[in-house]
Design goal:
34% of the residues lie in helices and 0% in strands. The chain contains two helices and no strands.
Amino acid sequence: MEKQYTFQSAPRAVRAGNRKKYRDPQESARPANIMFDARVIRGNTYATVVPTRSMRMQATLTKTVKRKTVKHSPPAPRSTTPPPVEGRMHMDVQTDNYLEELHDKPFETEVSTQTDALLDHPTAPAFIPKPSGVDKATEIGPRDLFDFDLEVEPILEVLVGKSLEHALMEVLEEEELKNLARHQQSFEQKVTVRFDKGGD
C-alpha cells in the first residue's frame, strides 16, 4: 500500500515586503467606512461585472490618455462686417420676423386707485353640490290630480257624522244620569217616609 505525500513546516509570521508589524494610527491608507471603499460593490450584483485590478488599471490609463490627447482648440474667429463704403455708415437693423418699434423713452401712463379703509369680509358662497344624473320636469294642471271639493265630501260626511253621533251619545248619557239621580232621590224619599211611619 502506497503512502500519501504530506508536507509539514514550522509556523512563521507572514510579512510582505517592508510592511510594518503594527499600524500607524496617524496614516489612513484605507477608508474606515466601507461605503466609501472602492472595492465594495453596491447595487444589484446579479448582472454587474465585478471589476478586477487589471480592469481598473486599464480604465485609469484610458482616462489619462484621453485627457492628454483632447486639447481645447481655440474658437474660430467670427467674421466681421467689412468697413462701410466712403460716404456711408453702418447702422443696427432688426432682422427678427416681427419688428419692434423702438423709442428713446418708453411709453408711460399713470393710474391711481383708492381703497376703502375697512372692507367687510365677503360672505362665503352657499355650497351647491354638483348635480348628478339627468334632470326631468313635468307640469300638473289645477284639476289634473284630483278635484278637492269632490274628494273631500265623503271625508267631511264621515267626520260630521261621527261628531254628531258622539254628541248625541253624550246627551243621552247625561239624560240617563239625570233619570238615575231623580229615581234615587224618589227612592230615598220613600224609604224615609216608611221609616217615619214605622217609628210612629
